[in-house]
Design brief:
This protein is mostly helical. Helices cover 74% and strands 0% of the residues.
């Protein structure tokens, strides 16, 4: 009588899951920002990857403002090699990177004091990923501002002040909204609407402060 072999059958090892492309993750975040940020926080990306996100968003920022400086009608025309463009590039790559690192540290302190469970790492993931996800919106806002400025030279209705500044808000509002979603997911907060409200108030205060400094000191 033949003995029955009860030893388990060999199991083929699973192939490691291929990571999704960066473009796919950006598009996915437009619909599921909280879920995307939770996944990123669980993966704990390296600092080099965070810097990659930030650098790509900085390049979008530089491209959008360069387009506005070169194409929007101005009293003095600018060239691609003008000092203003060079200063903008340095500010976009170096200044904006430093500013977002400092902003991440400040936001982490405030949210931890308000009951958040994340740290500086989670805040950097949320902030830098939001900067990358919303970079296309800022670029589209720049295209819209150039289009409105060009139409304003041909049609008086498009020369209204509120219409000329409207594209700037088109770029700011998505950033604030997605940042609220990202921070609430990174810090385990259940009410992203409250985070969005506080971010809107902070944005309004920063806007009023910039207007005051510009009117008072010409900054």
């Amino acid at each position: 009588m033949t003995a029955i072999d009860y030893s388990p059958l060999p199991v083929r090892p699973r192939r490691p899951r291929t990571p999704r492309s960066l473009a796919w993750r950006i598009v996915f975040s437009w619909w599921q920002m909280r879920r995307a940020v939770r996944q990123l926080c669980s993966l704990r990306p390296r600092e080099a990857e965070l810097l990659l996100w930030l650098t790509v968003s900085n390049l979008f920022f530089f491209a959008s403002w360069t387009m506005k400086l070169l194409l929007v009608p101005r009293p003095a025309a600018l060239s691609v090699f003008s000092p203003e463009i060079g200063g903008l590039f340095a500010g976009s790559i170096l200044g904006r990177t430093l500013a977002l690192y400092l902003a991440a540290a400040a936001i982490a302190l405030v949210i931890r004091a308000a009951g958040g469970r994340g740290g500086w790492t989670e805040t950097r993931i949320a902030l830098f990923w939001t900067a990358l996800v919303t970079a296309p919106f800022g670029f589209l806002a720049a295209v819209a501002s150039v289009l409105v400025a060009w139409l304003g030279t041909h049609y008086a209705i498009f020369d209204a002040h509120w219409l000329r500044i409207l594209p700037y808000w088109v770029g700011v509002v998505p950033f604030v909204w997605y940042l609220a979603q990202a921070l609430s997911a990174a810090h385990g907060l259940r009410r992203p609407a409250a985070v969005f409200t506080w971010l809107c108030l902070a944005t309004l205060v920063a806007l009023l402060a910039s207007l005051y400094l510009h009117a008072r000191f010409g900054l």
